[in-house]
Write a structure and sequence with these properties.
Layout: E1 2-13, E2 19-22, E3 30-33, H1 36-56, E4 65-72
Parallel strand pairs: 1-4
Antiparallel strand pairs: 1-2, 2-3
């Protein structure tokens, strides 16, 4: 059985010019970048690390294949 999960990424530019990306459905998953692209890449990488950790510890998606996609909001 396959579990398809789509994660929304919220991107916002801070007053100091940096960009921050956040995945609201994954608590604590937020990352900065000097531009929009860097923030987007950094937050996706962090989200994948969090999901991998959850899989390794049996905290999410047990006994299922996982299909992940991201959508920038």
């Amino acid at each position: 059985m396959e579990n398809q999960s789509q994660f929304k990424i919220e991107l916002e530019q801070e007053e100091d010019g940096r960009w921050i990306g956040e995945v609201p459905s994954l608590p604590g998953v937020m990352a900065y970048g000097s531009n929009r692209g860097e923030a987007l890449a950094a937050v996706q990488a962090l989200a994948l690390r969090v999901l991998a950790d959850q899989l390794e510890h049996g905290e999410a998606f047990p006994d299922q294949l996982l299909n992940v996609s991201f959508v920038a909001a």
